[in-house]
Design goal:
Length: about 475
């Protein structure tokens, strides 16, 4: 773990890359349109408001506990260690599922650059996607500095292409549907259940900005930087999501969206700029997908590192490589599990089928750990909420509303999702009960935590390879003003 490896700009880039704007638009738009139709911009807008509340919760919590486990540590120290473990487990499971959901489009987009017919070959897409995954695994293994350099290159090109097409889409008039403000209206949804299913998918769009918190032990001035970068990241991707979702409504028909469910952005590019447009946006999606594989690997391996350090998972996961300063055991384990899942994914159907169920399942798990983090912020700051209006609104009310929203969409959408999505989403969470109860019985110190509140800060628990983990130390005197 390379302390101080990342600065503010680096961390903002990681937040934007974590949400993977081009990938999210390409892979998720068809799923969102299938759920809410032309109300896709509304779903993204109404989900962005509570999502900012969760980003505020992460910002406030990162000030008092710098920990690579992020919500795993915060929820465990405020609500209950069992809930903390399930929060961390939800991230681990959702990120691991994403290794398949993300790698398949990376493979299919790479193949589409050479022959569009090859992009529908699930087996070949899996093979190429696995190759990209292994490449990103090696980059993450090389340390935070190498990771952020690769991220700057990939995300820089991706965002430049997206900015170009955002401008071109504004001037596109051929065969265009007229813009309608009703796309932002609540009445477009098929009742509250329909809105909930759309909001759950929208949560997947935004997911990933919180990688900044998992990198907190490797960031300069992390108590301020990680939370600020997360908020900026959510704001940037919100604008990109809205621009391109509106463009899809204006430029593409529902048939085009449905028939190109794994490649919507490429079809949009071809309509806006025939010939070159589709290829350029395929490049953007490919880079975005590879970039977010990298940030997802960081999230899951840092979370497992924190769990191994606390001995709530095998302690070997908490080992740090002496030369690369990375949690190499966690990285190798995640890589092996993901590669097995790549092979198994071929039995699940087409790329589009796999993406649809995976996105909904991940959305359920996201809702759980984001919601718990929102509640954790309110509990941690309960003694300071009435000291100022800013503390009450930004540290209490908004995170609380964000948490309640996440729990609501989780419950409300269960009846709307496919059996496969619910089984993967809920079953993946339930599987965490086994290691949780096992290591609780073995007496891990994590299950006897020092309570976290805003009148104390907790130092980062960096542990060199081979060292014995130590208890965190609490320190007084953190300012809580926003």
């Amino acid at each position: 773990m390379q302390a101080g490896a990342l600065g503010t700009f680096d961390t903002v880039v990681m937040a934007v890359a974590g949400s993977a704007p081009a990938y999210s638009i390409a892979a998720t738009t068809a799923v969102l349109v299938g759920a809410v139709g032309l109300a896709s911009p509304a779903a993204l807008l109404y989900c962005a408001i509570p999502m900012l509340g969760i980003a505020l919760a992460f910002s406030y919590l990162s000030r008092i506990d710098v920990n690579a486990g992020a919500s795993y540590s915060w929820v465990g120290r405020t609500l209950h260690p069992f809930l903390g473990f399930l929060s961390g487990w939800a991230l681990v499971v959702s990120a691991t599922i994403f290794m398949v959901a993300g790698s398949l489009p990376a493979g299919s987009m790479t193949l589409a650059l050479f022959d569009e017919g090859l992009a529908d070959d699930t087996a070949l897409s899996t093979l190429v996607g696995a190759a990209w995954f292994v490449a990103m695994l090696l980059v993450v293994l090389g340390g935070a500095r190498l990771t952020v350099r690769a991220q700057l290159l990939m995300s820089g090109v991706e965002l430049a292409i997206l900015a170009l097409f955002a401008v071109l889409a504004f001037f596109h008039t051929d065969n265009a549907r007229a813009f309608d403000w009703s796309w932002f209206g609540f009445g477009q949804f098929d009742g509250m259940a329909g809105f909930a299913s759309g909001a759950l998918i929208a949560a997947f769009y935004y997911w990933g900005w919180d990688v900044t918190s998992n990198l907190s032990e490797e960031t300069r001035n992390s108590r301020r930087t990680t939370g600020l970068a997360g908020l900026i990241g959510v704001g940037i991707v919100f604008l990109l999501f809205e621009v391109f979702t509106i463009a899809v409504n204006v430029v593409l028909s529902s048939t085009q969206v449905r028939e190109n469910e794994a490649n919507v952005l490429a079809v949009l590019g071809e309509e806006i700029w025939p010939g070159w447009g589709g290829k350029l946006l395929i490049v953007a999606v490919m880079l975005s997908t590879i970039a977010t594989l990298e940030t997802t690997l960081i999230q899951v391996t840092r979370s497992l590192f924190a769990m191994g350090r606390d001995r709530t998972m095998p302690s070997a996961l908490g080992r740090v490589h002496r030369e690369w300063n990375t949690p190499w055991v966690a990285i190798v384990v995640v890589g092996a599990v993901a590669l097995v899942m790549f092979i198994a994914s071929n039995a699940l159907g087409s790329v589009g089928d796999i993406l649809s169920d995976a996105i909904s399942a991940i959305g359920l798990q996201i809702a759980v750990y984001y919601g718990l983090a929102g509640l954790a912020a309110v509990v941690a700051y309960r003694k300071t909420l009435l000291k100022s209006a800013a503390n009450f609104f930004f540290g209490g009310l908004w995170p609380l509303l964000g948490a309640l929203f996440m729990f609501w969409i989780f419950i409300e959408s269960l009846g709307e999702l496919s059996r496969a999505a619910v089984t993967i989403g809920v079953g993946g969470l339930a599987a965490g009960l086994v290691p949780m109860l096992w290591y609780w019985k073995k007496g891990s110190d994590y299950y006897r935590p020092a309570k976290l509140d805003a009148t104390h800060t907790v130092e980062a628990d960096y542990v060199p390879a081979g060292a014995v983990p130590t208890q965190s130390r609490a320190h007084e005197g953190l300012s809580t003003d926003f």
